[in-house]
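Troubleshooting: if your tokenizer reports a length mismatch, compare your output against this known-good record of 187 residues.
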Amino acid sequence: MTARAEATRATGEAILDAASVAFARQSFDQVTLRDVATQSDVTVQTVIRRFGSKEKLFEAVARREGARIREARAVPEDADLETALNALLDHYEQDGDIILHLVAQETQWAQVEEVVREGRRVHSEWVERHCQGVLTGTRGRERQRRIHAAIAATDLGTWKLLRRDLGLERGEVAAIMTKLLNGMEAS
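Known-good structure output:
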């Protein structure tokens, strides 16, 4: 990679880093390209030239963060539930509060709503991949019910209730989510 190409890449990453922080701390409407430019030590024109608009910048941040999150949550297909749940809880511990910040804005901004909807889709896929014990031997409506129950048992909102609202330790959150999932197998 040439020095110029490396500088261009580094500038883009600096802008994305600054935008990630801004979108995590402020509501979508409060984030300005001027603030992002200042924090990334570039001009507003550089941000516009690179990303086009605040909406496009948000989409770029969402793509980058989405890839990072998918990688963080990734475990082998044959991983046991404990391993998969630990990866999920690692993700919630690192990103949960930021995602909750976005969820609170989903009805106000189409861009945010799209990101939140994608997160829900990814979580649903995670449940179907890693909660097979809950789904074994089920079909049709019963299978769908169990998928929905497993989504609720492992959802970010459940984590927030247990971890933030009730102040439980991470290990206790894992134990409760596991108990909820194992209870479905018995039903």
